[in-house]
Amino acid sequence: MKEIIRKIITVSMILFLFCGCANEKQETDHKKIKVAVTIFPLCDWTRQLSLGSENIELLQIVSSSSDLHSYQPSAKDIMNITTADVFIYVGGESDKWVEDVLEQSDSKDLTAIDLMDALESRVLEEEEKEGMEEEHEEHEHEHEKEYDEHVWLSLKNAKSVCEAITKVLIEKDEANKKIYEENLSSYLKQLDELEGEFVKAREEAGKEVILFADRFPFLYLCKDLGIDYYAAFKGCSAETEASFETIRFLANKVDELGLKTLICLEDNNRKIAETIIENTKNKDAKIVHMHSMQSKTNDDDTYLKLMEENLEALKQALE
């Protein structure tokens, strides 16, 4: 992989130099700060924090049709990263390819933000909860710790990351320091208010447990709120089919806990959830969806909007 990326970077930089020579006369007085990010939440945070500044060129690398867990960069993606001024990515096992890109890049102007590094002690190990489907693939590093990568689904983490992004934007564009600081202050208030709504919903909830008939990327949110959970798969699992044992276990949990609502991810079908419901006593549980936000779905989506929708789904699941 490293050799492939090295060759792509070499070709990309040659092309970039030719393009740069061709456009040199057009870039006379001002060069925008190019910020490349991997996934939607990082893109939306950066957009909100740079509102009012005309100095930021923002680019999302991982498209809405790609899965973060299996993504591999194209030559264009690598060129966009290595020619950026700022690159923001999640880190973790799914972003191992980033290490190769940054290692092979000789750009002295590129500042990289690794979310999992930035959050340090807040990063959680992935949990293997009772009843989860066992993964069929064999891991090369079976005894290594596996960390949950879905750090953006914690509002506490979101606030910390936004502070880190703002710091870098100011370093790159000190002339607009006031804009970035004011945007950060405003956005942190919105995150605080939404976090308060989540806490209120948890305090008023009739249940303390949710059931995910899907992969479970909401470990950070549940830990923040003190909510227990059961799920068909771990957050980063590649499995899509649940065994009869998993279905039966989760159906029994629905009956045992008196759960009225099951949760699925927004981009998955309801097959597992429907099968679980069919194996319960009353067979009348509802299904709601929550957004993992690994990809953008609609043009008017924002991080806050999708988290508000997650809040409404969570309220139903805790009834």
Quick structural overview:
The chain has 319 residues and is of the alpha/beta class. 45% of the residues lie in helices and 13% in strands.
The number of helices is: 11
Q: What composes the largest sheet?
A: 4 strands, parallel
In terms of DSSP E residues, the strand content is 5-15%
CATH superfamily of the largest domain: Nitrogenase molybdenum iron protein domain
Q: Average pLDDT, to the nearest integer?
A: 87
Termini Cα gap? 48 Å
Contiguous runs where pLDDT drops below 50 for at least 5 residues: 13-29
The geometry reads as: globular
Measured as a percent range, the helix fraction is: 40-55%
How would you characterize the overall build of this protein?
The structure is a single chain. By secondary structure, the protein is of the alpha/beta class. The protein folds into two domains: 161 residues, Rossmann fold (3-Layer(aba) Sandwich), CATH 3.40.50.1980; 111 residues, Rossmann fold (3-Layer(aba) Sandwich), CATH 3.40.50.1980. It is 45% helix and 13% strand. The strands form three sheets. Strands 2-1-3-4 form a four-stranded parallel beta sheet. A two-stranded parallel ribbon has the order 5-6. α1 crosses α3 and α6 runs antiparallel to α7. About 5% of the residues have low confidence.
